[in-house]
Design brief:
single chain, 313 residues, alpha/beta, Rossmann fold, six-stranded parallel beta sheet, 12 strands, globular
């Protein structure tokens, strides 16, 4: 039995781990961590896993000592690609620590969402395990005259939030900017940029409201510097909303929505405005192309996850 262990939140990290358990059902289970400390160990042991996949974040780093108490083979899931790890700083330190655990035999494998990272690390126990994608209920496009942009992210360094807001301040077409909370630092800059009157701040959104917010929006803007996969873009496209992304989201192919230089606010603004001018037919065509890309990456990723885990089991 495979046990995936990770956070009780709505991050991409949790979706990656939980997706593995859904994909490998009925021989897998997701166990949520609700504590900073090792109280979860008895629950892990009760499940008697043959193989545990543990989210490579601060919880397991704080509780390294429980690794020897977990039955069966053990692996760490490290989602960040190289660029994201470098931007965060902390992720590079974490990866070094996990490699040390691997070399000392404290864990048996490291799974990485980044194929490039798995390829460049000279160790056969570092294995590519991309984001599984189970939800394939794609909705039709929802063309309207409402020119609204969703900017929904956790505002971490690699999400390129300041440049996104700056590009929106240059837009001549955007009428509404929907966000899911904002820090005082960003809020002050919105005043400087002169777009505060266009902001609709919905605060922290439960998952169902997050999806409905994506669907209500004309476009998603997600010009991140680096992405492991980008569930936000996938979920927007699933809801029938095109996602403007940087090349970091490498499974999207339509040049109309790909920003070649994520620090070029004029390029970003021009793409936003051109897309907001699309007629209903062209908007629907764009959604269909995005959904084709999403279906393709779902098929590829799910095959790789099943194949790579199947080989180990």
């Amino acid at each position: 039995m495979i046990l995936t262990i990770g956070p009780d939140n709505t991050t991409g990290y949790r979706k990656h781990l939980e997706g593995i358990s859904y994909l490998m059902n009925p021989d897998a289970k997701y166990l949520k961590v609700n504590s900073k400390y090792a109280e979860i160990l008895p629950s892990i042991q009760e499940n008697k896993p043959d193989f545990s996949i543990i989210g490579g974040r601060n919880w397991i780093i704080r509780n390294e000592s429980i690794l020897k108490e977990i039955p069966g083979k053990k692996s760490i899931l490290f989602c960040s690609p190289l660029a994201q790890g470098e931007i965060s700083g902390e992720e590079i330190d974490n990866l070094n620590l996990f490699m040390d655990w691997l070399n000392k035999g404290k864990i048996d494998y490291i799974f990485t969402g980044s194929k490039d990272l798995a390829n460049v690390i000279d160790n056969k126990s570092v294995i590519h395990l991309p984001a599984p994608l189970i939800e394939l209920d794609f909705k039709k496009s929802h063309y309207s005259q409402n020119k609204s942009i969703a900017l929904l992210s956790d505002h971490t360094n690699h999400k390129n939030v300041m440049n996104a807001f700056a590009s929106l301040s240059l837009s001549k077409e955007v009428e509404q900017i929907i966000i899911n909370g904002i820090s005082p630092t960003y809020s002050n800059f919105l005043n400087h940029f002169g777009i505060q009157d266009k902001i609709v701040n919905k605060g922290k959104l439960p998952y169902d409201q997050y999806l409905s917010t994506l669907r209500e929006s004309t476009l998603l803007l997600h010009p991140s510097f680096s992405e492991g996969f980008c569930y936000t873009a996938y979920e927007a496209i699933m809801e029938g909303t095109p996602a403007i992304v940087s090349g970091a989201v490498n499974w999207i192919s339509d040049p109309r929505i790909i920003i070649s230089n994520p620090v070029d606010v004029h390029e970003m603004s021009n793409k936003i405005d051109s897309l907001l001018k699309l007629n209903e037919k062209d908007y629907s065509n764009l959604v269909n192309k995005c959904q084709d890309d999403a279906r393709k990456i779902a098929t590829i990723n799910n095959f790789i996850v099943k194949n790579n885990l199947g080989d180990l089991l």
